[in-house]
């Protein structure tokens, strides 16, 4: 069956922030083709599901979402599955879900318009290539930003091959985008209204490149260059690997004012035995040493992390060591997951897989500790005055939600301020997940 020319698209991104970034780039690409964004999938004649393959649950969600796109009259929009499930499962997707028209991997989505032409002729379209020419060279340039905060992918892919992880297979080998492209994209984002940029990469701190003078730079050099862009107020970056945490990046936290005091540095486990089986190539101690150096230059740094419980072979003792590293490291927020075996990864074939009820119990204990630390961290900010960047409307009348430098959400009521304003706020109350504040002063943008 041939399909009509889609006019309205809807993109739904799952998983990590890089998918959010990719979703925005696809949206710009489709708008550039004369299409417009629909408010929901019901109003769209092209729906892009930008998927995540990191855990089994995320994959199941894609298939149930595809099923839900069928309309009451039996018709369905043109459906494209993008992202890491597309890369990992390829043709299998349209076999399992025949209503899917397009399967496009994370390195090939700049070809969406051509793939739509194939789909329009009634054929299934598939592109999971990892082409030599980067999608970044083909995508339209950045324009007006809907929000004051923007993402910028600087590095993609991963060569670390942690034994549980699909990313090296779905996102491919590590690449760093060129210096000039990044400086230009950052400038375009700021011209388009962004005040804060979060630099993204699966191993963002492994970024390296040559600057405009031909000198090799690491992420700290790039951050220092972006710091000079007039109008850019805040710089963040994620996700970092402990092994790529250079002295230069640590010291940038001490003297680059726009670099926010926040570090997302996953440790995954506190047991050296498990870290070895995970192929993490760092130890609990080397991780804590990095934090010590970081806190020397930036004592107020907020720490975030990722944890996996129930990795194959994890004993009660190993798990206790994870609780112990959490107590020593002190997190302001964190993400923790039950181990999910992923097809094709070495850990999926390991013996001693951990029973689900043991994982449940460990996850509960770990999350109780992490939640307590997050609450403690939030409470420590009460009484302090800090700048917040207002990012979105709250649920109440006149309510706005902004972020502190430490990435906490703050609710304020102020009829005089708007999204995109920076303001000095006194924190008056702390909850487990957010803060309440009172405006002291609006800061000049
Ligand atoms: N099972 C559970 N969690 C995983 N992660 C990555 N792979 C798996 C898996 N197979 C987690 C890690 C990583 C985060 C993005 O997702 O903690 O840092
Ligand atoms: Fe996955 Fe490890 Fe690479 Fe992170 S560093 S993306 S966890 S393989």
Secondary structure elements and pairings:
Layout (H helix, E strand, L loop, with lengths): L7 E6 L3 H16 L3 E2 L8 E6 L4 H13 L9 E5 H7 L2 H5 L5 E3 L7 H9 L4 E3 L21 E5 L1 E2 L10 H4 L4 E2 L2 H13 L4 E5 L7 E3 L5 E3 H9 L6 E5 L8 H9 L6 E3 L7 H6 L6 H14 L4 E8 L6 H14 L3 E6 L17 H25 L4 E9 L5 E5 L5 E5 L8 E9 L3 E10 L2
Parallel strand pairs: 1-2, 1-3, 3-4, 4-5, 5-6, 7-10, 10-13, 14-15, 15-16, 19-21
Antiparallel strand pairs: 8-9, 11-12, 17-18, 17-20, 18-19, 20-21
Helix pairs in contact: 8-9, 9-11, 12-13
The structure holds 5'-deoxyadenosine and iron/sulfur cluster.
Describe this structure in words.
The protein has 445 residues and is an alpha/beta fold. It contains 13 helices and 21 strands. The strands form six sheets. Strands 2-1-3-4-5-6 form a six-stranded parallel beta sheet, sandwiched between helices. A hairpin with a 5-residue loop joins strand 17 and strand 18. The protein is globular, with a radius of gyration of 22 Å. The protein starts with 7 loop residues before the first strand and ends with a strand. Bound molecules: 5'-deoxyadenosine (5AD) and iron/sulfur cluster.
């Amino acid at each position: 069956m041939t399909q009509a020319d889609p006019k309205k698209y809807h993109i739904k991104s799952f998983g990590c922030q890089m998918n959010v970034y990719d979703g925005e780039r696809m949206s710009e690409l489709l708008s550039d083709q004369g299409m417009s964004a629909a408010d929901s999938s019901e109003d769209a004649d092209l729906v892009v599901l930008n998927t995540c393959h990191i855990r089994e649950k995320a994959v199941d969600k894609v298939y149930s979402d595809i099923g839900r796109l069928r309309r009451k009259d039996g018709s369905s929009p043109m459906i494209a599955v993008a992202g890491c499930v597309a890369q990992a499962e390829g043709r299998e997707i349209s076999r399992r879900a025949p209503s899917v028209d397009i399967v496009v991997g994370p390195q090939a989505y700049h070809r969406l318009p051509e793939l739509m032409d194939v789909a329009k002729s009634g054929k299934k379209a598939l592109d999971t290539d990892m082409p030599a020419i980067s999608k970044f060279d083909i995508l339209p340039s950045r324009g007006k930003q809907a929000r004051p905060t923007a993402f910028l992918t600087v590095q993609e892919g991963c060569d670390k091959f942690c034994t549980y992880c699909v990313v090296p297979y779905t996102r491919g080998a590590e690449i760093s985008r060129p210096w000039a492209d990044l400086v230009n994209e950052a400038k375009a984002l700021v011209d388009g209204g962004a005040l804060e940029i979060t630099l993204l990469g699966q191993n963002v701190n492994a970024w390296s490149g040559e600057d405009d003078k031909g000198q090799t730079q690491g992420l700290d050099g790039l951050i220092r260059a972006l710091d000079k862009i007039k109008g850019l107020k805040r710089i963040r970056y994620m996700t970092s690997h402990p092994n790529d945490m250079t002295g230069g990046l640590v010291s940038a936290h001490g003297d680059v004012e726009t670099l926010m005091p926040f570090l997302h540095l996953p440790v995954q486990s506190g047991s050296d035995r498990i870290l070895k089986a995970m192929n993490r190539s760092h130890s609990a101690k080397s991780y804590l040493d990095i934090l010590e150096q970081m806190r020397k230059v930036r004592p107020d740094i907020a720490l975030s992390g990722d944890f996996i419980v129930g990795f194959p072979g994890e004993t009660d003792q190993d798990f206790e060591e994870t609780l112990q590293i959490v107590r020593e490291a002190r997190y302001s927020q964190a993400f923790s997951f039950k181990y999910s075996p992923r097809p094709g990864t070495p850990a999926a074939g390991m013996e001693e897989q951990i029973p689900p009820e043991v994982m449940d119990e460990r996850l509960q204990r770990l999350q109780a500790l992490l939640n307590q630390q997050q609450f403690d961290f939030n409470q420590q900010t009460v009484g302090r005055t800090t700048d917040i960047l207002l990012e979105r409307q709250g649920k109440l009348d006149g309510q706005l939600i902004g972020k502190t430098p430490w990435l906490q959400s703050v609710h304020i009521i102020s009829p005089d301020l708007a999204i995109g304003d920076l303001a000095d706020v006194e924190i008056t109350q702390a909850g487990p997940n957010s803060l309440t504040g009172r405006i002291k002063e609006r800061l000049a943008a």
